Amino acid sequence: xxxxxxxxxxxxxxxxxxxxxxxxxxxxxxxxxxxxxxxxxxxxxxxxxxxxxxxxxxxxxxxxxxxxxxxxxxxxxxxxxxxxxxxxxxxxxxxxxxxxxxxxxxxxxxxxxxx
Amino acid sequence: xxxxxxxxxxxxxxxxxxxxxxxxxxxxxxxxxxxxxxxxxxxxxxxxxxxxxxxxxxxxxxxxxxxxxxxxxxxxxxxxxxxxxxxxxxxxxxxxxxxxxxxxxxxxxxxxx
Lengths: 115, 113
Fold this sequence. Notes:
- The complex is a heterodimer.
- Chain A has strands at residues 5-7, 10-13, 19-24, 31-38, 42-50, 53-57, 64-68, 74-78, 87-94, 105-106, 110-114.
- By secondary structure, chain A is an all-beta fold.
- In chain A, a hairpin with a 5-residue loop joins strand 7 and strand 8 (74-78).
- By secondary structure, chain B is mainly beta.
- Chain B has strands at 4-7, 10-14, 19-25, 33-38, 45-50, 56-59, 62-67, 72-77, 86-92, 102-103, 107-112.
- In chain B, strands 2, 4, 5, 9, 10 and 11 form a six-stranded mixed beta sheet that branches. Chain B has a five-stranded antiparallel beta sheet with strand order 1-3-8-7-6, with no helix packed on it.
- The chains are: A mainly beta, B mainly beta.
- Chains A and B meet through strand 4, strand 5, strand 9 and strand 10 of A and strand 5 and strand 10 of B.
């Protein structure tokens, strides 16, 4: 089975721009979670989608948003980029069977640099 | 109440030694405790996980010890190898909501040959 894939792997954007990151979960997985990883803050939960619905949301400003499609693929969007948004954005998928999610499998991440 | 505190921040162990990483959590609603291993340039990979109905779980050289009353759990890596050199993260969540995990700050393990 193919693992979690994220595109693009690297991205450089300018402050004030917006960006869209994509995540394709493992086949059959219905839950997709997004995390931000930075040296200073570690791994911070952004949000989780299950069957196209946002099930959980972390403590991030409204500039961070996401969605999930019927094939479970997910995108996250960051508008009005700030320098502090520079981070590795990780996507994790899990089975999500019967609304219970067990093991999470992470993708390689998208490295976003804001200049 | 959402914090997970991990220690030490870094650890150096000789090849063949035992590596021990500790985590403490605050939220008593947490009932799923995974450990992840992350190599540079890669995403975290699930290593081993435990639920609080058992006090220990072993998979190969990796063991999780869990102390529910102390709200602590630890990862033991037996016979540590240079290939184990990586960053290790503990995490905690509710099993019925494991898509929203709270992570420790990570431990950078270096195993010297």
